[in-house]
Write a structure and sequence with these properties.
The complex is a heterodimer of chains A (about 270) and B (about 250). With about 270 residues, chain A is mostly helical. In chain A, about 85% of the residues lie in helices and about 0% in strands. In chain B, the strands form 3 sheets. In chain B, strands 5-6-7-3-8-9 form a 6-stranded mixed beta sheet, with helices on both faces. The radius of gyration of chain B is 18 Å and the shape is globular. Chains A and B meet through helix 6, helix 7 and helix 10 of A and strand 5 and helix 2 of B.
């Protein structure tokens, strides 16, 4: 069964969606979408390093993204530049350096489109293992830091005053962000990973009244997007990443209609 | 009276410096079990800063702070909650500690907002939200309560009731309370110890001692001093919740 590339892609996508659901909610709540983008852009550098040193891609991306996140935290402390400028600086310089390194690696054939937008054909059984084992680990860690992370998302000082150590939770969450980008890069591609994080969670925000419900709907939305997206990708021969994100956009628009209806009902 | 093991938090010449400006300097005070310590002082005198030093929110401080409990309830003066979060009162109650339904309901009933339990936090009025904040802080049965202007925006009758509640909680849970308030009338009748701040501790002691202090008079004016000293005469009776007056 795993011989079929489509089944492999489906299993990989489902794994990714279950993890991006809850993480995406935190990305929205904590306003981290540009942070996610920056980490994703830096992933290109990780991929090129993986190729040039014959390293595992996911592992290499994880290392580079974590380093970029740490660099960002240091820069925030040491400069007076605003956060979005620092994010842009890191995102584009790491993307540029990644592309320059690709230029030097002319002896390796690169599927740049696959890297940027995802490639279901490229998902191997090894990738499945990385996604599922990595995904379970990410969710376990997230469950452990949920209380301090959520409390400090609502109000940092309350969490700190009542002894929850929000700084540690924030640092661990940053690492989790790097990890999710590392495991989902092959499925969605580095330009669209943030979309996979944000859009299902945004859809969920429109229809949920509590944080738990938002996480649940976000996961369901992600799963539906993956399934819809992959089937249409197969049908119309489009890249997997854009197809999945387009499907999630479709669900987001549906959730907007739902709001309008409920407002009408109220009146 | 002040045995060492009753101390919950102790500040030794604590101060906090932000961008080369001292928000507060040289504050020494301690909060003990079952006691209410009130910080008073004009705007910008460092009351909230002192509370945050005691809570450990500010870490790079001058002097030292010794905290002997981790069961802390905090009602901040300002709280900005991001409404991108779908958060109901019920979710907010269990923010820092998991509580069972009975405990949550009890606390919300005590502050008179049980009917708002399933409402979105963003839909509450200022006074309602303040009551929820107080309910959340007391629901976890803390050993130390830090209340930074806990009744701001609460209606007049509610204000009196909530101060009575705070006094009751201090007695029932035997917890120490660090209270910040502008309302000299209400506060003084229940406070054990007053610390008058103006960037530093300008005077401290029992309410009556502070009222007689010249620095206090200079800071708040002669009238405020009279407010405080009037409580001297009220200490011979207590008000029951039914509105009766009992002689001590």
């Amino acid at each position: 069964m795993l011989d079929d590339f489509f089944i492999r892609a489906l299993i990989a996508g489902i794994g990714v969606a279950i993890v991006t659901g809850p993480l995406g909610c935190f990305v929205i709540w904590r306003r981290l979408s540009y942070f996610g983008d920056t980490l994703a852009h830096s992933a290109l550098l990780g991929v090129t390093l993986a190729y040039s040193m014959e390293f595992n891609i996911a592992f290499s991306v994880f290392i580079i993204s974590s380093l970029i996140a740490l660099t960002l935290i240091q820069l925030q402390k040491r400069t007076n530049l605003p956060g979005d400028a620092l994010l842009g600086l890191l995102a584009h310089s790491s993307l540029a350096v990644g592309l320059v390194v690709i230029g030097f690696l002319s002896f390796i054939r690169f599927d740049i489109m696959g890297l940027l937008f995802g490639d279901i054909l490229a998902v191997t059984v090894d990738d499945l293992l990385i996604i599922w084992i990595g995904g379970v680990l990410i969710l376990l860690v997230l469950k452990l830091i949920w209380k301090p992370l959520f409390a400090s998302t609502v109000n940092y000082e309350l969490a700190e005053a009542e002894g929850l150590n929000p700084d540690r939770a924030k640092a661990i969450f940053t690492i989790l962000m790097a990890a999710i980008i590392a495991i989902s890069i092959k499925m969605v591609g580095l330009l669209l990973i943030t979309g996979m994080l944000i859009i299902p969670a945004a859809m969920a925000r429109n229809i949920s009244s509590s944080p738990q419900k938002m996480v649940m709907y976000s996961i369901i939305g992600g799963l539906l997007s993956v399934i819809l997206g992959l089937f249409s990708s197969l049908e119309f021969n489009t890249a997997s990443g854009p197809s999945i994100i387009a499907a999630s956009l479709f669900l987001f628009i549906l959730s907007l209609l739902n709001i309008k209806q409920s407002i009408k009902l109220k009146n | 009276m002040s045995s060492e093991q009753n101390i919950l938090v102790k500040l030794n010449k604590a101060g906090f410096n932000l961008n080369n400006k001292w928000l507060v300097k040289g504050v020494s005070l301690q909060v003990e079990k079952g006691k209410i310590v009130t910080l008073i002082g004009p705007n910008g005198s460092g009351k909230s800063t002192t509370a945050k030093i005691a809570l450990g929110i500010y870490k790079k401080i001058d002097g030292s702070v010794e905290k002997y409990t981790n069961k802390v309830g905090y009602v901040p003066q300002k709280i900005s909650i991001d409404w991108t979060l779908p958060l109901r009162v019920n979710d907010f109650m269990v923010l820092t500690e998991s509580l069972n339904k009975k405990t949550i309901d009890e606390a919300l009933s005590l502050t008179g907002v049980i009917h708002l339990k399933d409402k979105n936090l963003g839909d509450l009025s200022g006074g309602e939200f303040q009551r929820v904040l107080l309910a959340r802080a007391i629901s976890k049965k803390p050993e130390l309560l830090v209340l930074d202007e806990p009744v701001q925006g609460v209606d007049f009758t509610g204000e009196i009731a909530l101060y009575e509640l705070i006094k009751k909680i201090s007695d029932e849970l035997n917890c120490g309370i660090l209270l910040i308030s502008h309302d000299l009338h209400t506060v003084m009748s229940a406070t054990d110890h007053v610390v008058c701040l103006n960037g530093h501790v300008c005077c401290s002691g029992s309410p009556i001692e502070v009222a007689k202090n010249n620095e206090y008079k200079a800071l708040f004016g002669e009238q405020a001093s009279q407010i405080l000293s009037r409580y001297e005469h009220r200490h011979d009776h207590i008000h029951t919740s039914e509105g009766e007056i009992k002689k001590n």
